[in-house]
Amino acid sequence: MLELYHFEAAANSMKPLLCLHEKGVDFVSRQLNQDGKRWEQYSDWFLKINPDGQVPVLVHDGKVIVESTVINEYIEDVFPGGVSLRPHDPYWRARMRIWTKYVDEYVCPALTVIGANFATPFAQKIDKAEMDEVLSRIPLDGPRRKWETVSSTGYSEEELADARRRLGVAVGRAEASLGEHDWLAGPAYSLADVNAYSMISGAERVAPEALNGTASPRVFEWLRRMDERPAVKMVLASYGRRPAPTRAA
Amino acid sequence: MLELYHFEAAANSMKPLLCLHEKGVDFVSRQLNQDGKRWEQYSDWFLKINPDGQVPVLVHDGKVIVESTVINEYIEDVFPGGVSLRPHDPYWRARMRIWTKYVDEYVCPALTVIGANFATPFAQKIDKAEMDEVLSRIPLDGPRRKWETVSSTGYSEEELADARRRLGVAVGRAEASLGEHDWLAGPAYSLADVNAYSMISGAERVAPEALNGTASPRVFEWLRRMDERPAVKMVLASYGRRPAPTRAA
After folding, report:
1. Could you give the ipTM of this predicted complex?
2. Mutation choice for A interface testing from B52, B70, B93, B165 by most A CBs within 10 A
3. Is the model's pTM score more than 0.95?
4. How far is residue B148's CA from residue B192's CA, in Å, rounded to a whole number?
5. Nearest Cα residue to A249 out of A224, A227, A232
């Protein structure tokens, strides 16, 4: 049995959802409740599956695989049939991995700050004793500090500006890359596109100064092509908070 | 032709050096000068090879591969013979990738702070106009900010303490993992060991409160096993600043 524990189809949870749908691999969706005050990823039952309290998690015949980017390479290793999302040529495969790594290490932390900032009004309303109890159950220091920050001071203007600046740098890099070939990391659609789209497809709405069609026409054309993919539409319709985006002209 | 541009055998540069030596793959070493005031990684000739100004870089028949962790997967993709450093079983392969990712995302930034801090006395003596000229040539914001920091204020005590704390967290995670199997990410030696050893083999000297034989006996036994590997000895003898470490009892 193949089970995926995930949140709604966005960011890290979208990556394996999109990979599985692109490849047509059957799986059982275990969508965690993301409503405020549930914190299901830190519940006792989920911490037994992933002691780090992070989603997504793939469970394949009882074997637990964590980390969305690793999960997608695992899916390619175990289900090489169907649409290939990993180039056969080692050079283009390396280019794909350079992009997935860049998204994980440079883009994701910036988007985490921008995204978490939206949770500040909600988090600051939570009773302090209750929030302290939640914080005490968060295993990893990164997410714990994030929730400590948004439930107290919030991120500073400097931190938010730097996160938007980093997102802009990444969009510029994507724009240059898409000037060289049709897809983000080479001539073929790959896990790099899956990874980057999952992270930045909603950035136009939350950071329009960093991602907009005027400054980044190739990135926008690529986003529109991605929006139209049947797997993207299916994933957003099944697990998304909203349907596939309508991009500004 | 296979060429590796690298610094001395430590941290990210050690990863592909060790991988190539373990597998017995012939290559041409292009070791950059690391002496102060050279900044060879930001020179015009090197920026033509890697516009990001980062080492190591593998150049294979003219194709440029960057990012040490991606380089090592590329070496396994192109030279699958010899010692296999990537498990054939997809589950253990995923575990290997979870570890290399963790080292890159969590351990490396902490060690960068600890390591860069040692460069503070040297960097603060550099003439400001000269340093500004160097800073203007550093393409990536991460390394540029690092050198801005060490050449001016240096890292704060809080930042250094947090880096040592993070290193301690990672050592604790390695200690637990080595309690489950002989090698860091599973029953077999893999790129996870190559990656982690390259980063932390010198940490006993610079952060003994985070890495010492009393608190982490399994990590120490693993480090000693690694120290004795012929490839490790060869790499340190050929490209290292010092020979293989003698571990404290």
Report:
1. 0.96
2. B70
3. yes
4. 32
5. A224
